[in-house]
Design brief:
The complex is a heterodimer of chains A (990) and B (663). Chain A has 990 residues and is an alpha+beta fold. Chain A contains 36 helices and 31 strands. The chains are: A alpha+beta (990), B alpha/beta (663).
């Protein structure tokens, strides 16, 4: 328990106070008595621990993954090649480097790995292998650099920045029947690792050539980054190293130093580290720098530049190890013979001329006054503790040296260990705010105290924060009386001091990991806030901090989760990344509650969790047999799919951020098209739904959904895709069920060749109408005639003989018009209508031609008479008109009068008036404005007199409005009214 | 003026800022497309609509280095100058012919070695086949891109928003292209967003199949944007309480009738486009026959909008017979106002008059002069159409147009057949002849197969055989369909029938089976459309039948009125009114419980276009029902526009010249 003796676990190292927290007592102490006997990798941010147990006897090597408290998360057999080293990426993927240059990337829960490969099998030496590898974090993600046995360095940036789509052949690898274990049969050097508990790949898939090509396809942008340097004798000009502590390779000038890396025989550098691209050092994505210790000196390797010697210490101080801080601002160099640690600052940049003056220099050389004891054998590990100190670990001892020169350093930190067994030297994992130490027994965390915490707890310091905490303790009854507390409060005079004390307490609460201490400090902060004006309470809200701390405590103290994040680490990671990490561990319910607790928006929080859960559920379904084709579902499969979809819909529902199309895509990739289609029924975004249906090959359904959405753009998109994919026959079959799509397709298709589509669709009448339009668009007579013939035949095909006859008549008329043009020169007929042609002929006096044309085209008698009358009157041939009127007219004689009046010949109209029928006479008289005569005539009629008088009344009323003040109209109207009254008085009704 | 004040305009329901935003959005989106200076080429059919939201000067200032337009239907190539390197932005209507022209221009540029960016932006959406066409022409690529600018709404008046989709009716009725409906749904949802942040209107009255589709699309759009129907529950009194979507297929009769109100008459006679009327400044009275082009000397633009023209506000919804009186009153009031201003005694009064009122007065005087000229012109043209008017009125009310004597000798239907044949011989305006034929087909039971065949022959012999296609198109759209001997609409493959054809009386009626094929006559009876007292209705501008000279009520207006009244609940006096129940083309959808008992405002959407007379009818309904109404339409149409949309041959001169042998 921490509580009151918080300061007792603090070590003063240089200018820093470093707190030593025991995070966990590990659970696997019996299972793994000594971690140093295995290949291990511990992740940052309280992440998982990977332990690789190599069993050389029966070749049953295993990979075990534990959480930070030592509970097993997953394990799998290692059936791949010779593992050299491994580490965790920034997204908690396990990156394993094999000696053959293969890089395998496993997810936290195992599964099929993704493969990257270094091409080290150069033509020069077929025996080239990876000698050592370093992992680094850059702004482009996690990277890995390797040094080969021939002295070449290669690196890959952004290991995970590629599509999560499995590599070619991997699916079939997974789909193979279970039980066909290949761990024994697969070649050891195979670049294809087997999935845990899964199966063999076909031999063809294991061909390196095939694999390399698939990498190139999957990640074409990465091949550019696979850059190498060759460390050769010509380009090195190093002074010969002293043979005392270093063995010199005869083949290469690179000096191999003993100690740090278990290296195979070969010209591998002793120690090296990577300066990764960061915004601060302005290195591009395909650039890194490498510090190499060579012959006791420090070299800087950079692409396309000769190696630069940065440091050439005297031979007696040959460098044996180096360590770069996490932020790449400090470089620590260790010289084993002299036990000197020198720290350089790289913050001001790096030049090829050399390193700047050292920041500090410590010597642990034994002497009578030296406080340092022990440290036998070679230095085992070296790591930074948050830029404050450097931890050095020997097999039997460890030591913490401050960054800045100081006499104070901590020795034998394991003195706090209780019941320490033979757990060996701890693993070191630098964090940006401290250093993790892991043994088989304990998981410890060293953190430099921030200044506010130091002010609060330092027993040698009395700050307002200390007083506030003391006062709070007093009130809570732990120390003195309330009066004493009040007196204590009085000692903090100004608001600024009170505010500083509150801030100090809040900062301390963030730092403290033990919940009772957190509560105590938070309560003190609240008490302080109560003494301040209300605006400060609003500015320093503690509820959000409380929720965050509650979440972190749950993460830490729930051993099934075992995620010991400090608040600073949580702040740097962000809630989103934390949720991702929980999801990676398949802690869906906890992640869901965390989203609720911290009020994450539904689309970013709960929906994401539910989507991940649903994807995992789909993943757990066994895939169907059959590759890439819809082979239909068995009854059991269909039932399983139905049950799963019901579960997913029940739990996931329709909340913002949920994307059923994505789930369907996942199901489709697992060769579950039936499940995918079922899921797509619940997708509300038409675009996604339709795209996925198209991908599944359900073209008809895709079109149906697109039509249902009403989004014409989407329909067009589907049509375009179908047009490119399907034959026209198929397409017509699909679209016939969707008239809307059909209409759109016609429009699209009509842009180029409407006739072809109409022909294909057997729409003869539309096709004929189209030809007809084309005919009348043609300006050349011969062409028009030809197209009219075509239209006629189309109408006949369409079963519309009447319209076909009309087209034939049109062609016939055109023919006759052309003939007329030839016969009657200086007159144009082509293009006129039949009536216009007849009128022109009648107007010209070509009555016989007109008569023959009329007979040919079967113009009815009445219409023919009407035409004659109109044409003769319009052309001023009134003699012929009168002659015509002497014959018996089938249309009566009113049209004659009207035609004469239209032509402006009133006299002729008056002359024709007596021949007009009685029913029409009144109207004609009205047109002639002979109103008196009209009234007389109407009143004298024996039948229909009332009707004609009413007509006259209305006509006169309109004329009065139109031409007011006309005496003729006025008098006629008056007379009509009088007549009306007379008739009414006489008993006759009008 | 008093007459005009009666038709008090409804308050603008859509925020004017929203309308102003439309133009700004266009400018912004176009700028995002081009990313800098560019040459702007605008489709001529877009010039006037764009003028409603922005101006050429504004476009030039904010958007483009240069603004050009088509001339004579051809694209003017940008000059060969330093500006040639600027990208060209084309603003086009969804018309593939225009796109082909742009493709040709691009290819011509490529031939000359000029490489520049061609951006073709379609308003409001890229048409079907545009990509296919561009690919076929081999131009689609980085330098030739197709985009859409979803500019949907153009405010024509304070209560009238138009989408200016000129071919909407044809697309829906004949082509089966429903992309128009998607645009309308987008427009409705955007209006919802502008007027009410909380959700859609609770009550939806849907007339016709297309209206149902629009309703479904609106739901779909809302679900896509995250605002679901559940948001309707949160709707407040600030937005529309009802939405009425009226599909043109329900009432094809009203837009085929000649318009009697002033604004409609102007549209029928002069073709008002986007609320703008180009009239000759002088000598407008020296007019020509209907159908002929007016002299375009010194043309001036006149806003046919109550928003911009106070004189038009007084006249717009008046019957033509009442317009001269009103013009006289306006002239009188202007004169008295001017005299009052001129008789100002003090210098301050004079200054106030000159500064504040004189400009307004001058504008009003100029407007008055224009309207007097237009009124004369309209009257003249109407006299030429009087015989059509008589026939049309008889068809609408089902009266007998024939003489007493002729009635005994020939039937009414034969009278019409003869009459139309005579019209063909006289070469009366073919569009009006066809219009009346369609009206007869829809409203009076139509022609027999033989009569129709005879009429087609007469029409083709009179106006040319290209009209064989015209008749086929009208048949396909359900406007001119023959009837069998029993009187049923003959079912022809591919032909659409109007919704009226399937309108039936309530099934409770004993004669339900017998009336299965009832159409307009049945509906006329059921909805009591014919006025009992036409003489008084002709004078009463508050009556719905005022727009039809007091003879009958327009079907569309009546249906909208009934929909609004059904939402309000009926008073005792309205119990005898007909109801919409069991009408096969009507559906009422409720999105949420109506928490607001009093209807305050309604959005009326007219799919396929509406006439100015219908706009006036809707205004009358609004004032009578005390409901604020915002009208949204795909475009304002005149009496012949529907026919011209369906039959492009009617838009071109009747007899195109042909090169004969002598050439």
């Amino acid at each position: 328990m921490e509580s009151q003796d918080y300061w007792s676990d603090v070590n003063a190292v240089g200018d820093y106070y470093i707190r030593h927290d025991n995070v966990y007592t590990m659970k696997f102490v019996r299972h793994l008595p000594n971690l140093n006997s295995h290949l291990t990798a511990l992740a940052q941010y309280g992440g998982p621990l990977a332990v690789f147990r190599r069993n050389d006897l029966n070749e049953e090597s295993r990979m075990e993954i534990f959480n930070a408290v030592g509970q097993l998360i997953t394990e799998f057999k290692w059936t791949s090649g010779n593992l050299l080293t491994m580490s965790w990426s920034s997204t908690e993927s396990l990156v394993c480097v094999q000696t053959d240059g293969s890089v395998l990337i496993y997810q936290l829960m195992g599964g099929s790995p993704q493969l990257r490969k270094f091409y080290i099998d150069s033509k020069k030496t077929s025996s080239e292998q990876v000698a050592s590898a370093k992992f680094y974090e850059s702004q482009f993600g996690t990277g890995v650099a390797i040094a080969t046995s021939t002295g070449r360095f290669l690196f890959l940036n952004g290991l995970e920045n590629f599509s999560p789509k499995p590599l070619v052949g991997q699916e079939s690898y997974r789909r193979a029947a279970p039980g066909c274990q290949t761990s024994r049969t697969a070649p050891v050097q195979s670049p294809f690792p087997a999935a845990p508990g899964a199966a063999a790949a076909p031999v063809a898939d294991l061909q390196p050539a095939r694999q390399s090509s698939s990498i190139t396809i999957a990640m074409p942008h990465m091949t550019r980054l696979n850059t190498s340097w060759e460390v050769s004798r010509d380009r090195y000009s190093m002074p010969p190293a002293r043979p005392t502590a270093a063995s010199i390779s005869t083949e290469c000038t690179v000096i191999i130093l003993p100690g740090a890396v278990p290296q195979p025989a070969g010209p591998v550098p002793a120690a090296w580290c990577v300066l990764a691209p960061r915004p601060s050092n302005q290195l591009g994505p395909d650039q890194i720098r490498i510090f190499v210790l060579s012959r006791g000196g420090l070299l800087l390797l950079e692409q396309n530049r000769p190696p630069a010697s940065l440091l050439e210490p005297p031979p007696a101080e040959a460098l044996t190890d180096l360590c770069l801080s996490l932020d790449q601002s400090l470089l620590a160099l260790w010289s084993e013979p002299q036990r000197h640690l020198t720290v350089y600052s790289l913050a001001s940049g790096l030049s090829a001329s050399g390193l700047p003056a050292p920041l500090s220099r410590h010597s642990l050389a034994g002497g009578p006054d030296s406080a340092f004891v022990g440290g036998d054998g070679g230095l085992l590990r070296m790591a930074w503790c948050a830029n404050a100190a450097v931890m050095l670990v020997w097999a039997d001892q460890r030591c913490l040296l401050p960054t800045v020169r100081s006499d104070r350093f901590a020795n034998r930190l394991d003195e706090f260990h209780e019941g320490e067994g033979d757990s060996g030297a701890p693993l070191l994992v630098p964090e940006f705010d401290g250093l993790r130490l892991l043994t088989a027994e304990r998981h410890d965390l060293l953190r430099p105290l921030p200044r506010p915490v130091e002010q609060l707890f330092n027993i040698a310091c009395v700050s307002p924060a200390t007083v506030l905490l003391l006062a709070h303790d007093t009130i809570s009854g732990q120390a003195r009386t309330e009066t004493a507390a009040y007196e204590l409060f009085l000692t903090i005079e100004s608001d600024a001091d009170k505010l500083a004390a509150v801030r100090c307490c809040l900062e301390a609460a963030r730092f403290i990991a033990w919940p009772p201490d957190q509560k105590r400090v938070l309560r003190a902060a609240r008490t302080g806030l109560a003494l301040l004006p209300p605006k400060y309470s609003r500015e320093h809200r503690t509820d959000e901090l409380c929720q965050q701390l509650r979440l972190l405590n749950n993460l830490r103290f729930n051993e099934s989760i075992g995620l010991p994040l400090t608040h600073a680490q949580f702040s740097r990671l962000g809630l989103g990344v934390l949720i991702d990490r929980l999801l990676n561990r398949r802690l869906h319910e906890f992640a869901f509650r965390a989203c609720e607790l911290l009020r994450l928006s539904e689309s970013d929080g709960q929906a994401r969790v539910m989507m991940h859960w649903a994807e995992w559920q789909i993943d757990t379904l066994p895939p169907l047999v059959g590759a890439g084709v819809d082979i239909g579902e068995s009854r059991e499969d269909a039932q399983a799919s139905d049950a799963l979809v019901a579960d997913i819909v029940k739990f996931v529902g329709q909340r913002p951020g949920v994307n059923y199309a994505r789930l369907a895509g996942k199901a489709a990739r697992l060769n579950r098209p039936g499940l995918a289609r079922r899921l797509l029924d619940f997708e509300t975004r038409s675009q996604d739904q339709v795209e996925q249906l198209l991908a599944l090959g359900s073209h008809g359904k895709a079109l149906e959904k697109a039509v249902k959405s009403g989004d014409t753009d989407l329909i067009q998109q589907v049509l375009l895709k179908l047009h490119n994919m399907r034959s026209e026959l198929d397409l017509a079959g699909i679209m016939r069920k969707q008239p809307v799509a059909m209409a759109l397709y016609q429009q699209a298709y009509c842009a180029s060749d409407p006739a072809a589509l109409l022909d294909q669709e057997d729409r003869r009448s539309d096709l004929a109408a189209l030809e007809l339009r084309r005919a009348f668009d043609a300006t050349e007579a011969a062409r028009r005639q030809e197209l009219l013939g075509l239209a006629a035949s189309r109408f006949t095909e369409a079963g519309l003989p009447v319209l076909a006859k009309e087209c034939q008549l049109a062609a016939q008329l055109l023919e006759r018009q052309r003939k007329l043009e030839r016969d009657l020169s200086a007159q144009q007929f082509a293009g006129l209508s039949l009536h216009a042609t007849l009128a022109r002929l009648l107007g010209n006096g070509s009555e016989k031609l007109a008569e023959s044309l009329r007979r040919e085209f079967e113009v009815p008698e009445k219409r023919w008479w009407q035409l004659q009358v109109t044409a003769l009157a319009k052309s001023g041939r009134f003699t012929e008109l009168r002659r015509l009127s002497e014959r018996k007219s089938p249309i009566g004689y009113a049209p004659f009068v009207n035609a004469c009046l239209d032509a402006g010949n009133e006299a002729e109209a008056v002359a024709l008036l007596p021949r007009v029928e009685r029913e029409q006479r009144v109207r004609c008289l009205c047109r002639l404005r002979r109103y008196a005569e009209a009234i007389d005539f109407a009143s004298g009629l024996k039948t229909d007199a009332a009707y004609h008088l009413e007509y006259l009344r209305r006509h006169l009323a309109r004329e009065e409005v139109r031409q007011p003040g006309q005496p003729v109209v006025r008098e006629a109207a008056q007379r009509l009214r009088a007549l009306h009254q007379t008739m009414a008085a006489g008993g006759g009704g009008v | 003026m008093e007459r005009g004040d009666k038709n008090k305009p409804t308050t603008a329901l859509v925020d004017p800022a929203f309308v102003a935003e439309v133009g700004n959005n266009l400018v912004k989106q176009a700028q995002e497309l081009t990313g800098g200076d560019h040459i702007l080429v605008i489709d001529p059919s877009l010039m006037k609509p764009l003028d409603r939201v922005t101006t050429g000067a504004q476009l030039r200032k904010q958007m483009a280095a240069e603004v050009q337009s088509y001339r004579d239907g051809r694209i003017e190539h940008p000059p060969e100058s330093a500006r040639a390197r600027f990208p060209i932005l084309y603003l086009l209507r969804p018309d593939l012919r225009r796109l082909r022209q742009v493709c040709n221009a691009f290819k011509a540029d490529s031939m000359r070695g000029v490489r520049r960016l061609y951006l073709v932006a379609f308003l409001p959406a890229v048409p079907a086949g545009a990509h296919a066409l561009a690919e076929e022409e081999g131009v689609l690529g980085q330098l030739f891109q197709l985009h859409d600018l979803p500019l949907l709404l153009f405010p024509l008046d304070e209560d009238l928003l138009s989408m200016e989709l000129d071919s909407a009716f044809r697309c829906l009725q004949s082509d089966g292209d429903r992309s128009v409906l998607a645009s309308v749904a987008r427009a409705i949802v955007s209006i919802e967003h502008a007027t009410r942040p909380a959700g859609p209107a609770p009550h939806w009255h849907l007339f016709g199949e297309s209206a149902l589709a629009v309703f479904a699309l609106c739901e779909h759009l809302r679900s896509g944007s995250g605002s679901s129907a559940a948001a309707a529950a949160a709707s407040g009194p600030g937005g529309f309480s009802q939405v009425i979507i009226f599909s043109r297929e329900v009432d094809l009769i009203t837009p085929l009738c000649l318009q009697r109100l002033y604004a409609g008459c102007l549209d029928d006679c002069f073709r008002v486009t986007s609320g703008l009327l180009v009239v000759p400044r002088s000598n407008a009275a020296a007019s020509s026959e209907p159908g002929q082009q007016q002299q375009q000397q010194q043309p001036s633009r006149l806003f046919v909008s109550r928003l911009e023209d106070p004189v038009f506000r007084c006249l717009s919804d008046l019957h033509m017979a009442a317009v001269p009186d009103t013009l006289r009153q306006v002239a009188h009031s202007l004169t008295s106002f001017e005299q009052h201003g001129r008789s100002a005694k003090s210098v301050a009064e004079m200054r106030s008059f000159v500064q504040n009122d004189l400009r307004d007065l001058t504008f009003k005087k100029r407007s008055l002069a224009s309207h007097i000229t237009l009124c004369e012109e309209v009257n003249k043209r109407f006299n030429g159409l009087k015989e059509f008017l008589h026939a049309e009125e008889c068809m609408l009310i089902g009266a007998d147009p024939t003489d007493a004597s002729m009635r005994q000798s020939i039937g009414m239907r034969n009278y019409y057949a003869d009459y139309f044949a005579e019209c063909c011989v006289r070469r009366a305006d073919p569009r009006h002849t066809l219009r009346l034929m369609c009206l007869h087909s829809l409203a009076c039971g139509g022609f027999s197969v033989e009569d129709l065949s005879r009429l087609r022959q007469a029409f083709c012999q009179a106006f040319g055989y290209q009209h064989v296609a015209t008749f086929a198109a009208l048949h396909k759209a359900g406007l001119l369909t023959p009837r069998d001997k029993v009187g049923h609409v003959a079912s022809v493959t591919g032909g659409r029938q109007s919704a009226l054809s399937s309108a039936a009386v309530p099934p409770s009626s004993a004669s339900a089976a017998a009336n299965a094929s009832m159409d307009y006559p049945a509906l006329r009876k059921r909805l009591q459309l014919v006025e009992r007292d036409p003489a008084s209705a002709e004078q009463d501008s508050s009556r719905l039948s005022y727009a039809m000279s007091g003879l009958c009520e327009p079907l569309s207006g009546k249906l909208i009125q009934l929909a609004l009244e059904s939402g309000k609940g009926r008073s005792n006096s309205q119990q005898s009114q007909p109801s919409l129940n069991n009408l096969p083309f009507y559906k009422h959808q409720t999105l949420a419980q109506n928490r607001y008992a009093v209807n305050q405002s309604a959005l009326v959407v007219m799919l396929g276009g509406c006439t100015y007379s219908e706009v006036a009818s809707v205004r009358q309904i609004a004032s009578r029902c005390k409901v604020g109404i915002q009208l949204l339409t795909t475009g304002v149409v005149g009496c012949c526009d529907l026919l011209v949309q369906l039959c492009p041959t009617l838009a071109v001169p009747v007899e195109p010249p042909v090169q004969g042998d002598r050439a």
